[in-house]
Amino acid sequence: MSINFKNDVNDETIKLLKDAFGEPLANDRRTFLFDRLNEIKQPIMKKVANAAKQPATVEIHGHGDIKVLSDGTRYFVTPQGWRKIEE
């Protein structure tokens, strides 16, 4: 799963995400990659979006999907979770 924002988020948003979904495997303050798929609750996501002052987009990924962070670092989904693509 990934949670994505158009712009960088503040520390309050990061704390809310960690409280709700655990420590992200990777993040660049816009994209947050999580290995576990927790229950996604609307009241929590509303708090996250309000703290970020922007919409939050949740994506559910399947095996082989690739996500690129703003610094160009690429991750792909394996049966065990996200893995960094070494170049």
Please give a structural write-up.
The chain is of the alpha+beta class. The chain contains two helices and seven strands. The strands form two sheets. It has a four-stranded antiparallel β-sheet with strand order 2-3-1-4, with no helix packed on it. Strands 5-6-7 form a three-stranded antiparallel β-sheet, with no helix packed on it. Helix 1 (11-21) packs antiparallel against helix 2 (42-52). The two termini are 23 Å apart.
Chain-wise SSE layout:
Elements: E1 2-4, H1 11-21, E2 26-27, E3 31-33, H2 42-52, E4 57-59, E5 66-68, E6 74-78, E7 81-84
Helix pairs in contact: 1-2
Main beta sheet: 4 strands, antiparallel
Sequence of secondary-structure elements: EHEEHEEEE
Q: Which consecutive residue ranges, at least 5 long each, have pLDDT under 50?
A: none
Arithmetic mean pLDDT: 95
- How many strands? 7
The best one-word shape is globular
What is the share of helical residues?
Answer: 25-40%
Radius of gyration: 12 Å
Secondary structural class: alpha+beta
Please list the strands of the largest sheet in the order they lie side by side.
2-3-1-4
- Overall tally of domains: 1
Strand content: 25-35%
Distance between the termini: 23 Å
What is the number of helical segments per DSSP (H or I, 4+ residues)? 2
List the defining traits of the structure above.
87 residues, alpha+beta, three-stranded antiparallel sheet, 2 helices
Q: What's this, in brief?
A:
This protein has one domain (2-62). 25% of the residues lie in helices and 26% in strands. It is built from two helices and seven strands, in the order βαββαββββ.
